[in-house]
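hey all, quick one before standup. I had two proteins in the batch that finished overnight and I want to keep them in one place so we stop losing track of which output belongs to which input. First protein below, input sequence then structure tokens straight from the run.
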Amino acid sequence: MGVDISDLVKGKPISIGDLSGRSVAIDAFNTLYQFLSSIRQPDGTPLKDRDGRVTSHLSGLFYRTASLLETGLMPVYVFDGVPPELKRKTIEARIAVRREAEAEWKKAAAEGDLKRALSMASRSSRLDHDMVGESKALLDALGVPWVVAPGEGEAQMSRMVSDGRVWAGASQDYDALLFGTTNLVRNLTLAGKRRLPSGKTQEVVPEIVSLGDVLSALGITRPQLVDIAILIGTDFNDGVRSIGPKRALAAIRRAGSLEKLSEEGKVAVPEEYVEVRRIFLEPETVTDYRLDWKRPDAEQVRRIMCDEHGFSVDRVDAALSRLSPKGASAEQFRLDKWS
């Protein structure tokens, strides 16, 4: 889920059409979890094929990616690698939450409380190794490139933006800003009507967040933004009790850094702050990746979607028919539209 600095960040509403001709690196795990959470039956049951295998992730990935390609946007998906050791506690906590949610889902379903069942089911989503492999195979068939990060996907996204290979990164997590993503697109794969865990729907509009604008508006540097996040709490450390975004901002503005704040002796700065700061400011990334968009292999798409998982041939073909051949490289796209 990442750090919650939504109170400090203001994005600019855009349409997906505004991103036509742009290459965008998309947080794959974040996106697949969105599909697993939202594409479900009224009782919370995920979409499944005839063999009982969950296919919500494939449905979302295929139709949303096809829609993005149709608009002229050039997506590349970035998958997480090995998480830092400091993330272990967060991962274990998430597993526990999912297990509890699954138990509550089954209980609510048995009692006929469909609203609660759907809400709990959405929080129980799991992404396993097979699902990740299926997703990569589908992207290959669609001619869409993907990259595996050595560590955090958002860090690799940031590197790709800074390299000038893509124009923006796309994720729901504000961690992408901490890693240095200068242009962050939020709600890209959620655009349209979204069903919330409560069962209600809301209209979701894409937005662009400029890291430079955020830092300028707050009057801070990126290292200071990271320090603020550490005080609030990140995936790699627990925050300081009773300190939220606004108090953290005020504290760092006044003291300048966590070191000086610690010297004041008024705030119990997280002991691991140096290592957490390094994760965000000096992340492990790769540069030997290729971004080649190719024409979709319709036969392979049908083999994966229809033959293996029973999706409608007519619906899949309809989506494929709207895609025009793509073969340009990321470097050919203009990078000045939002400057």
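OK second protein, same deal, sequence then tokens:
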Amino acid sequence: MSRVALLAASAALLTGILIVPAFAAPDATAAFSQDSAWSSGYQGKYTITAGSSALSGWKLEFDLPSGSTPGSYWDATLSSTGSHHTFTNREYNGSVAAGASVSFGFLVSGTGVPTGCKLNGIACGSGSTPPTTPSSTGPSDVPPTPGSARVAPYIDITMPSPSLVSASNATGQKVFTLAFALGSSAGCVPAWGGTVPLNDSRIINDVNALRASGGSVIVATGGAMGPYLEHVCSTSDALYNAYVAVLNAVGSNSLDVDVEASIPMTVVNTALKRLQDTRGTTISYTMRIQGQDYGMDPFSVQILQDAAAKGVNVVVNPMLMNFGYTGNWGDAMVAASNATLGQMRQV
């Protein structure tokens, strides 16, 4: 945000002219809506619309009542002080042409809705509307994971280098997937890589430093090695408790299940459904690709069908880096993506 020099501020007092930051177009508006809701929370969205002047950046702030707190978010960064929450544009959506709109979303634990909305320091005005009636969402309607995680690279969190912060500083990437939370020698007791305690100080400090710089993390289970939590936790309740323990350890509410082996889908999806009902957790499945013209393997499709039947909303990440193909690799990846999308439309 630009700073107004003392001389300019003095001139404003003498002449009665209000000086506002360059990006604070007074006729811009922000409209709130609820895209979906459940017994313990909801998915919210603000749509910011520039007025007759373009925006070169935006900051939207509001309050939530006691008992309601934001969790995962996307297409914005978040800072909170008590019940006051401030969302600021990302590097790719700060510039908004006159009359154009951008939006960002977030999950809330609790049923309280935003009050006292301000856009760039000015009341949101007529654009700040009451919550809309929540719509019913399907498995493909869940938003990206926190911090606009359209890209959230896996990082082996058991390794001390590179740190999350150093990787972020070197690449500009703000969202990372922590790989992997696994079963330990104690069975259904999660640990990083199956050996490193969840509260390991290096990992916790690294995650906190990333978050302080505007980043966020997703927790990944499964993977290529194991032991899977999904195998060693024999009941959905035990698995749910293991998921909660890992998420709480790093202050995340986003979970990715990387399926590279058979899993008890009924147990897993029952635990995931409970996570979404009680915490509003953003869930993704990372699935194997069988071929460029086929898409996901049959077992992956069955897992998604079971998830849909149980009402679990999931994002699907196809493993486009590892499958048999012919011809051009880039064309094969596009074909595999399109085939996966076709499968998802049938779920």
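Flagging for whoever picks this up: Residues 41 and 210 are 26 Å apart (CA to CA). The chain has a mean pLDDT of 83.
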